[in-house]
Amino acid sequence: MNKHRTIYASALALVLVAALAGCATYEKCGLHGCAGDADLSKAVQESIDQHAGLGAPNSIRVMTVDHVVYLEGQVDYGLEKSTAESVANQVPGVTKVVNNLYVSH
After folding, report:
1. What's the whole-number mean pLDDT along residues 61-85?
2. Average pLDDT over residues 61-72
3. Region of residue 12 (phi > 0: left; psi between -120 and 50: alpha; otherwise: beta)
4. 38: which of 4, 25, 77, 92 is 20 to 30 A away, CA to CA?
5. pTM, whole model, 2 decimals?
6. 62: closest CA among 31, 89, 35?
7. What distance in Å separates the CA atoms of residue 73 and residue 13, rounded to the nearest whole number?
8. CA 58 to CA 62: how far, in whole Å?
9. Residue of 32, 31, 102, 42 whose CA lies nearest to 69
10. Which of 68, 57, 54, 53 is nearest to 22 (CA)?
11. Which pLDDT belongs to residue 85?
12. CA 63, CA 97: separation in Å to the nearest integer?
């Protein structure tokens, strides 16, 4: 029983840390997000969409919070996942890329 309690406590701690990090960003950036995040998302999306090897336009979704870019979606191969992250990192103003892409094969 103690093993399960430890696992649940660890999971709860991770959820709380994630929630507090989100609150800190909200406090810093306000209700509409940080200045420039929408423009940065658009620039990253355009850069990714220009690479035909990364799939159809808008097949990778881009979201930016406090200049950290989040990539979500599906790619066919691991190399595409790495390429998308590299392309996003090259856009001026991006401070970090969180690559949540998954490989279908």
Report:
1. 94
2. 95
3. alpha
4. 77
5. 0.70
6. 89
7. 27
8. 9
9. 42
10. 68
11. 97
12. 10
